[in-house]
Specification:
Elements lengths: L3 H8 L3 H9 L6 H14 L5 H8 L4 E5 L8 H17 L3 E5 L5 H10 L4 E4 L9 H6 L4 E4 L9 E5 L1 H14 L4 E6 L2 H5 L3 H16 L3 E6 L4 H14 L5 E4 L2 H13 L9 E6 L1 H6 L5 E4 L2 H16 L7 E5 L3 E2 L12
Parallel strand pairs: 1-2, 1-3, 3-4, 4-5, 5-11, 6-7, 6-8, 8-9, 9-10
Antiparallel strand pairs: 10-12
Helix pairs in contact: 1-2, 1-3, 5-14, 8-10, 11-12
C-alpha cells in the first residue's frame, strides 16, 4: 500500500504539503498542487478513510435508507440504490445501505453516531414517522419521495400526480369511459405510501374532469390475486375497457388472464402501465407506459445531498421529474369509439 510519505518523496515535497493538498486546509500554489495530484494518481495513493475523517470532521459516507419490503417491487428500489452508489463514488463518497424496516430507530442510529455526513431516504409515506427526527438532525437529508408536508425538506421524485393524470387523459382521448386501476398491494395504501397515493389522486382528479368513471382495486400481484381482482372489476363494471396498472408484479398475470378470457389487447381492452421501461417492452404485449426514472432519481438525490453538504443548496427544495408517456401496442381506441 502506497503511503503519504512515498507520495511526498515522489512529488519532491514535504509530507505536510501532501496533507494540505488532500485536506484543503492551507493554500498551496497551483504548480505544487498539480505535482502532488499527479503523484497521487501515478502511485495510486488512497488516503486512509479514518484519518481523512478525523482531518475533515467528515466520514465521506452517505446513508441510504431503503426498506426492502415484500409488497414493493425490489428491482426498482435496487436500481435507485445502484444509481445512488455510483453517483456517490463519483463525488468521493461511499454509501451505507440500511435495508431493514427499523424506521425512526435507524435514523437515530445514524444521526446519533455520526456514521454518515448526509442521509438519503426512500419509501416515503405521506405522514412518515421518520420526518421529525430528520428535521432535527444536523446531517443534511434528501428524500426520494414526497410526504404530505414538504416544508423544510429537500425531495426528489417522479411527479406521480401528473403521471396519474397523464394515464387517465391518454385513455380518455382514445374514447375509454370506464377505467379500472390495478394498484399496488393493499399494505402500500394502508401505509399511505406517497407515490401510490399521489398517482391515485392524479387519476381520480383528471378522470372526474374528463367525465370518465374510475374504479381502483389494490392487488397483491400474484396470478391468483389478479384473477380475483379482475373478476371483481368486471362484476362491478362490466363496461370497463381501459386499465391502468401500477403494480409491476400484476402485469403478466393481467395480460394472461385477459387473453384467457378472450379479450384482445388493445382491440377489446387497453392497458397502460406505470413501470420500468424494461418491464413495458418485454411484456407479452408491448405496453404503453410511463417509465419510472429510477437512475435519474438516484443521481439527483446524491447531487442534492452533496450540494447541501457544500452549502450550495437551499434548506427546502422539491424537484419533481415530469412524466413521459410512451405509446406502444397495448392501447387503442375504445370499442365502438369513432
Amino acid at each position: 500500500m502506497v503511503t503519504l510519505a512515498e507520495v511526498a518523496r515522489h512529488a519532491g515535497v514535504s509530507a505536510s504539503t501532501v496533507s494540505y493538498v488532500l485536506s484543503g486546509k492551507r493554500s498551496i500554489s497551483a504548480p505544487t498542487r498539480e505535482r502532488v495530484e499527479h503523484s497521487i494518481k501515478e502511485l495510486g495513493y488512497h488516503p486512509n478513510a479514518g484519518a481523512r475523517a478525523l482531518a475533515s470532521s467528515r466520514s465521506n459516507i452517505l446513508a441510504l435508507m431503503v426498506p426492502l419490503r415484500t409488497d414493493m417491487y425490489v428491482p426498482v428500489m435496487m436500481e435507485i440504490a445502484i444509481a445512488v452508489a455510483t453517483t456517490a463514488r463519483s463525488h468521493g463518497y461511499d454509501v451505507l445501505l440500511l435495508t431493514g424496516e427499523e424506521g425512526p430507530a435507524a435514523v437515530r442510529r445514524v444521526t446519533g453516531s455520526g456514521l454518515a455526513d448526509a442521509m438519503i431516504v426512500m419509501d416515503v409515506e405521506l405522514e412518515d414517522e421518520r420526518l421529525p427526527l430528520l428535521h432535527a438532525a444536523r446531517q443534511p437529508t434528501v428524500l426520494i419521495g414526497l410526504p404530505a408536508d414538504t416544508v423544510g425538506l429537500t425531495c426528489v421524485d417522479l411527479d406521480f400526480t401528473a403521471t396519474g393524470a397523464l394515464c387517465a387523459e391518454h385513455l380518455a382521448d382514445l374514447g375509454h369511459r370506464e377505467i379500472a386501476v390495478v394498484g399496488e398491494a393493499p399494505a402500500v395504501y394502508e401505509r399511505h405510501t406517497g407515490f401510490a397515493e399521489r398517482t391515485l389522486e392524479g387519476l381520480r382528479r383528471r378522470a372526474a374532469e374528463l367525465g370518465v368513471r374510475l374504479l381502483h382495486r389494490p392487488c397483491e400481484g400474484s396470478y391468483e390475486s389478479m384473477d380475483g381482482t379482475l373478476s371483481r372489476i368486471f362484476d362491478e363494471r362490466p363496461g370497463t375497457t381501459g386499465f391502468v396498472v401500477q403494480n409491476e408484479a400484476a402485469i403478466d398475470p393481467l395480460l394472461s388472464l385477459l387473453r384467457r378470457q378472450g379479450r384482445a389487447v388493445p382491440e377489446d381492452v387497453s392497458v397502460v402501465a406505470i413501470c420500468p421501461e424494461q418491464v413495458a417492452t418485454q411484456a407479452s404485449v408491448r405496453l404503453t407506459s410511463v417509465a419510472i426514472p429510477a437512475q435519474e432519481m438516484g443521481r439527483r438525490a446524491v447531487e442534492l445531498a452533496v450540494a447541501k453538504l457544500e452549502g450550495e443548496a437551499p434548506e427546502e427544495q422539491v424537484t419533481l421529474l415530469a412524466p413521459e408517456l410512451t405509446v406502444r401496442a397495448s392501447s387503442g381506441p375504445a370499442p365502438g369509439a369513432s
